[in-house]
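Ligand: magnesium ion. Inputs:
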Amino acid sequence: MPSTPGNKKAAPLELPVAYLRGIGPRKASAFKQVGVTTLRDLLYYVPRRYIDRSTATKIGSIRGETKGEVSIIGRITEVQMVKGRGGTNRYEAALDDGTGTLHLIWFRQTNRVRKWITEGFSAVFSGKVNMYGGIPQIAHPEVMSLSKGEAVDLQQGKGRWIALYPGGKEFDKVDLDQRALRNLMDRAVGEYVHSVPEIWPQQLLDQFKLPTLSDGLRMVHRPHNAKERDLGWKRLKFDELVLFQLLWSWSRRRNRDKVKGIAYPEVGGLTRALIEEKLPFQLTDAQKRVMREIWNDMKQPHPMTRLLQGDVGSGKTVIALIAMCIAVENGHQAALMAPTEILAEQHWLTSRKFLDNLDIHVDLLTGSMSEKERRGKYERLSQGQPGIIIGTHALIQDKVKLPNLGLTIIDEQHRFGVAQRLKLMEPDHVKGRNFDGSDLLRPDVLVMTATPIPRSLALTLYGDLDVSRLDEMPPGRGMVTTKAYNADFERQKIYQQIAGRVRKGDRAYVIFPLVEQSEKLDLAAAETGHEELSAGAFKGLKVGLLHGRMKMEEKAEAMRKFASGETPVLVSTTVVEVGVDVPEATIMIIEHAERFGLSQLHQLRGRIGRGGRDGFCCLFFYPPLGRTAEGRLSIMQKTTDGFVIAEEDLRLRGMGDFFGVKQSGLPPLRFSDIVEDQDLVRLTRKVADDLINQSPDLRQFPALEKEFRRTALGRVGWLEAG
Ligand code: ADP
Ligand code: MG
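Predicted complex:
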């Protein structure tokens, strides 16, 4: 049948869900609340689980409490409403699946449930099992109703696979139970799945053994067996990951071909003087290699977008200094942005030390400076004189104009989030800059991160960046031994031992954790710890104190005293986590180590053993320990390899909050899990690159281009098309 514009068949997928028979305004609005407005959205509203005989749990096989959720196919044999105190009722039902009996129990909405779950009712019931008086019980199970015939078929393994859809309050209110949902989805799949256009060339489908999109969607909703289910999901994940990675490949390519950057003509005398005369050491081979990679980018007429990965202490700061020096001596401003004030200050001191007597101006800008002081800096910076500016977030405020910015370096990037990084890369941040009247040149960007990032994550989070690695430590690093102790038993003893070592000349950090994200409490813990230790274990020794609320000069003073040995013990909050460099420090005690994340522990530990002498890191934990806390402490004792730690961290935490992926502003992945689907992440990166190489604007693949614009570009507003 020929399709005419305005005809329902013309663009059925963009039609509202209400077009589907069985969905009226009330159901449509319930769907809207879960993000489903069009028929296409409906087709992508995929099951959460599947049930068949092989995945259903037999009641008779349940022993004790189960860890995860179970699903049971069975019939209700008995029900009763039990009156509780204070007018609260609970509703109980006995569930039989032929192998045993399990109790279902509801404490809320009991009247509604009573009308629904009656004797003879058959369904799939899912939830966590608790043992109550020796009888397994599920409270507030998820219920997927079945017809009697279906239940029997399923139990005997005759029925097809049945999909369980994510439900919710919205759905309950409009009587969209699992059976109703399933019927709707049957209809949607039956009527519309064939209208879903294919986006990949046939050859690509063949190469990766993928079903067509309409087949894949059908398989996800209505698999005939496990193989179909997996194939369907593979297709959805593949699409999602390639489309996502295309964004990066496309952006990199566009960056290379279309966006103008600064081509620095030369490495001059200033930089040479820094490397050859000022630095008190030889660059490591890794540093030399990375410098070559950076210089290679800087001399190109398109902007550098590079990620520098190097473990704590691998010597990234020096690299930053050299790169900034090149930018300055070629007539530009260079900015270095650090995540904390103390680190910004430290960078500032380091650069003053190494650049001393060289003709190069270094400025510092942080949030704690007085308004007057800051205004003076804004004024200076807006004049665009070549020079280095070091600071914190204060640098990305709109008030700050860097009209001659040529290079931006972002240190310890994971603290900033992707959105902020992208802001720094966009030329409108450097408003006021005007080279030839109209053309905005984008500054070079170097992102430095001390926590190695698992490759699969790097590909998703930093897919638009080229990667350099400092995989070699400067010579003369000590070995650091790490041990975890139950503080309840061993705290005093270990503190006494450490006091002994300090008396013989060692220097020790004592770190207190952030308490409930509150700077006040955080401070209180450190202050109390400071008093307690000064009067107790470290009596007679000078104990310094450092926390985030101190004034800049006070912090610098506390650091100076610790560095000089005047106060050989420094009690501190986590402000020392990043970048602080006192080579003489050999001991670190971390209180409440169980509260710290793995990468944070690794960062902290990186502060000791820098000066060639071996170090000792003592982790005090306060039981009881959760499973992941135990995992973290055990990994810390086993390895100091940042990459191993990063992989383990990702595994322990899942990608949910790893480096703030959630807050990163990236489109969330609905179908894929970058930990479990690592191989697919890698594969799809290559697929995306190949597609862009074949056709940089994707014009060669019209269906794909359309989908790309509809999904990726639409969702990520910061990348304007074209
Ligand atoms: P990162 O920022 O990667 O944690 P830093 O740049 O702070 O590491 O370097 C750690 C320490 O090693 C500093 O004291 C620095 O001066 C020193 N350092 C850097 N490069 C070298 C080198 N090539 N040889 C010896 N010491 C170095
Ligand atoms: Mg550093």
